């Protein structure tokens, strides 16, 4: 069921992207000096404990700001551009396209004192970003220690946006950041997961870049909205994606008699497992 639904949604996503070419406008906001790579596993369905997706994320660390993003996003975007240029799509090629790629980016301390969250839901009409204040996370540092990669790490815990987390950080890399929006410990976070293991981030490597790389801020074609409004839109997309697409485009999709009507499978609120449970 998951696979069939996935390919149907992907096919519609390709069509909507063919209909909306994106114009790129980029601003260099910093230079990345360090990069930490993470493996990210995410539970996608509470009714199927084995339905996880896996992605590989980069944390690019500059002097004043950091950005967290999928290292496979460029591959996915290249695939979409190729499909756009051909003007057609092949279902067999869609099945071979990158899967489980996170579309979001998180910029920390850009603008100054803010977090910017950027996400692409479906097509150009549903690209959004929001800003929120860079508020401190209340960590409790424990005495537990272990080795991750080649670094001595120490355990810390926190509650963040409705979830309880365990983090492992190393003071051997005195960088106060970590995956997603996590920050504020006296060393780089090399592993982080919520206590239900719905979201797991584990470092696979850390490096100082031979040549500093641009940290690019790009919101051209994205709509700025409030975090509250974004979460409402995200909920609609995740719980009933076909209906969401039909409403966005004003078209009829098999299984939905008119735009705005529920798909045959109905709305499944339990399919919505956001990393942030509270606003």
Sum up the overall morphology in one term: globular
Query: Into which percent range does the helicity of residues fall?
Result: 10-25%
How many helical elements?
5
Order of SSEs? HEEEHHEEEEEEEEEHH
Descriptive account of the structure:
- With 279 residues, the protein is of the alpha+beta class.
- The chain has 5 helices and 12 strands.
- The chain has helices at residues 2-18, 73-86, 91-96, 227-239, 241-249; strands at residues 27-43, 52-61, 66-70, 105-108, 114-120, 127-133, 140-148, 151-160, 163-170, 188-194, 199-217, 223-224.
- It has a 12-stranded mixed sheet, with no helix packed on it.
- Helix 1 (2-18) runs parallel beside helix 5 (241-249) and helix 4 (227-239) packs across helix 5.
- The chain is globular and about 55 Å long.
- Residues 14-24 have low confidence and may be disordered.
Task: Record the SSE blueprint.
Blueprint: H1 2-18, E1 27-43, E2 52-61, E3 66-70, H2 73-86, H3 91-96, E4 105-108, E5 114-120, E6 127-133, E7 140-148, E8 151-160, E9 163-170, E10 188-194, E11 199-217, E12 223-224, H4 227-239, H5 241-249
Helix pairs in contact: 1-5, 4-5
Brief summary of the model shown:
With 279 residues, this protein is an alpha+beta fold. 21% of the residues lie in helices and 38% in strands.
Key traits:
alpha+beta; 279 residues; 5 helices; single chain
């Amino acid at each position: 069921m998951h696979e069939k639904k996935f390919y149907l949604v992907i096919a519609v996503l390709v069509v909507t992207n063919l209909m909306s070419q994106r114009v790129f406008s980029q601003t260099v906001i910093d230079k990345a000096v360090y990069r930490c790579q993470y493996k990210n596993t995410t539970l996608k369905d509470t009714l199927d404990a084995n339905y996880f997706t896996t992605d590989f994320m980069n944390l690019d660390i500059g002097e004043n700001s950091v950005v967290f993003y999928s290292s496979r996003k460029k591959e996915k975007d290249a695939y979409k551009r190729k499909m756009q240029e051909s003007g057609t799509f092949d279902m067999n090629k869609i099945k071979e396209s990158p899967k489980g790629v996170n579309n979001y980016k998180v910029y920390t301390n850009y603008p100054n004192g803010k977090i910017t969250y950027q996400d692409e839901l479906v097509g150009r009409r549903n690209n959004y970003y929001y800003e929120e204040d860079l508020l401190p996370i209340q960590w409790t540092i424990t005495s537990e220690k272990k080795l991750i990669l080649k670094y001595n790490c120490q355990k810390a815990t926190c509650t963040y946006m409705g979830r309880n987390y365990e983090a492992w950080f190393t003071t051997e890399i005195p960088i106060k950041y970590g995956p997603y929006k996590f920050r504020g410990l006296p060393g780089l976070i090399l592993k982080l997961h919520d206590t239900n293991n719905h979201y797991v981030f584990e470092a696979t490597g850390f490096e100082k870049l031979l040549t500093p790389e641009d940290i690019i801020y790009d919101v051209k074609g994205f709509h700025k909205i409030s975090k509250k409004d974004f979460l409402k839109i995200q909920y609609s997309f995740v719980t009933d994606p076909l209906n969401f697409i039909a409403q966005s485009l004003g078209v009829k999709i098999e299984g939905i008699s008119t735009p705005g009507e529920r798909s045959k499978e109905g709305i499944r609120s339990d399919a919505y497992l956001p990393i942030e449970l509270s606003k």
